[in-house]
Amino acid sequence: MKIHYQQENVRTIEYDVDGYLTGIDPQGETVAKFKTVASVAYNAQYGTPITKDGQFVFIGTWERGLFCYSIKDQRLIWKQGPGRVRHIILVDSSLIVEMAGRGIYKRDATKGELLQVLKMPSIDRFTQLNESELLAGPLRGKYIHYHLPTLQPK
Questions:
Q1: HSE-up of 143 (CA within 13 Å, CB side)?
Q2: What's the pLDDT band for 142 if we cut at 50, 70, 90?
């Protein structure tokens, strides 16, 4: 599975069925290869964001939660539960994470600390419209248009 980016240090990441992630720079050279919790079927469906500088990658899992790895150092930086991670959006220094059956969690990207929770037991729409807007829901029968990264309704 390959995911392509526009970052200057990492242009592509690939991961295999065993969870090994390979980072490839714009010249096609391998800059990292290490074991992660990635799953080809799962992470291909919900995405794997990396920071703009190409230094960190964020991987969500259904069973174990959210993980941050250093691409440069090829090591786990932090991990946070609970599981049931579906979508991850990286906005500035925040991760906006859809948690199935729980809602939307906002975490600090550098430490993984929980900053905000919007409880939403059933989400069937979680779409980043542009750099500063998210559409999610339903919440009490309505879809909500949120400002990113504050998660304030528009």
A1: 9
A2: confident
